[in-house]
Amino acid sequence: MLFVIAAITITSCSEDFLETKPTDAISAADALASAENMALILNGLHRGLYAQSQTIFPGGNTARAGEHYWVPLGDNIAGGVLHSAPANNLSWQDETRWISHTDQTSLTNEILWYHRYNIIASANSIINKATDGSIPEDDRLREILGQAYTYRAYAYLSLVQHYAKGYLIGSPASDPGVPLLFTSEAPFTSAPRSTVQEVYDQINLDINEAISYFEDATSRPTGTADGKSQLNIDVAYGLKARIALNSGDWRTAADAAIMARQNYPLMSEGDWKSGFNTTLLPEVIWGSNVIDTETTFFRSYFYLIANDFNGSQNRNNPKIADRRLYDQIPDTDYRKDIFLADAPNTNTSASNGEGGFANDPNYTDRGVWDAKITEIKDTYGFTSGHNLHPYMHVKMLQKNSGTIDPDDIIYMRSSEMYLIEAEAEAMLDNVAAAQAALKPLGEARDSAYDPTVFATKAALLEHIKFQRGVELWGEGFLYTDKIRWDEGVDHAANGGSGASQILYQAGFLQERPSVNNAWIFKIPQAEIDANPNIGPGDQN
């Protein structure tokens, strides 16, 4: 039933990305007849965030499973999570090499566009019906509307951040953004591309509407992982903080971040090192609870990111940290422990040419080498087939290490909100306020933390970049961070990241986004072919 109702407003990518056709299993009128029925559509959207796209969106593709792919993509493209050896399952290394997102026919460009507009179409169907006066407005309907407006803001933010030039590095009043779409019934045609400013204006309208509805709505269930898959006012404030941060509305960013994190205490060391595999962690504001019966196995986030997942992407290609980031972490900061700098290099196919005992420069005693391998594998649950590599991470770990069991996807944590507040205050030249925002997070992670040593705006901003790099490592933020900061990718600079130029190819060096349009995703060719309002001249 959930699948059928969710499919009512969902599109097909084989013909026209922006056309929806209702199934004959249940009428759209019935699906939208009550708040409870609309809640089923929302549940379809919740599942659509992590399902293999063809199972929830007709015409999707088995190789992309929503946020399982999109979340780590931000660190993969921007070079935060590094590959140590060849392993191109799901085109994951093509992303690293800047092949996929720069190709208008790539599956990544098509499915990301397609996925976000499906969210928008379903949100539109709820918003248009729930606000037409035919259903009495009560707390439950306001909750439904709050979630729908939040989803629409979320989808448009994702689209404009990927398919348009960054707000802070371009000319938003004239830069082409993405089409704004408000209808929900077939047939409809998209408008031409709105400007980046117009898209952000709509996003802000939507998120403010969401917060307004949530203020007098039923509360989200608490105490369960499933409950955190629902959107609530905290999620809306967190999204508002992200929107404001990436568009330079610093005061709004700081204030919204404070509102978002109120009910989500910072994690203890034990929680932080537990694997980031459940939305039940106290910091988690929003995430997908991936249940056993709906797992995606070798399409999952943990397949792409977690070194203990039992798949070839992980066994043959341990993901490692940028050595330049690792070297900045103080020994008093327990987050340093999740990067295994002294792990033996057991992979004879490692791209640095140092795989195997005979080639590993860090070990001269075979007994010590073997003992270290046994220690790491026993501690973290790697199988005998899992390779190790220096600087490999153990931040993301499965609940059942060495298996292919499903785990949750975390989208928003209170730590991020402290960092948003700090960056916004620094940009406002409020040095003391930025230090105060950093203090709770820094002290929770580093026993010797003192934010007052970062006494200038410039020093604070560099430190905030470091803190985001460590705290949010692997959670997908680096792509949008680099666009906001106008920083390129250079794996050779400052002693090198540890990435192989032969492996990384075009992704090894990329100029900063303000002068390099390769940061902008190509509009899918299928959309250009199908949409009369977007032509070849609109291509990024």
Please characterize this protein's 3D structure.
Helix content is 43%, strand content 7%. The chain is built from 22 helices and twelve strands. It has a two-stranded antiparallel sheet. A hairpin with a 3-residue loop joins strand 1 and strand 2 (16-20). The longest helix has 24 residues, at 107-130. The chain starts with a helix and ends in a 10-residue tail after the last helix.
How much of the residues is beta strand, in percent?
Answer: 5-15%
Low-pLDDT parts are: 1-25
Query: Biggest sheet: strands, sense, closure?
Result: 2 strands, antiparallel
Number of strands: 12
Amino-to-carboxy terminus distance: 39 Å
Shape by Cα distribution: globular
Count of helical stretches: 22
Computed structural class: mainly alpha
Chain-averaged pLDDT: 92
**CA-atom Rg in angstroms:** 23 Å
**Helix percentage range:** 40-55%
- What strand order characterises the main sheet? 1-2
List keywords for this structure.
globular; two-stranded antiparallel ribbon; disordered N terminus; mainly alpha; 540 residues
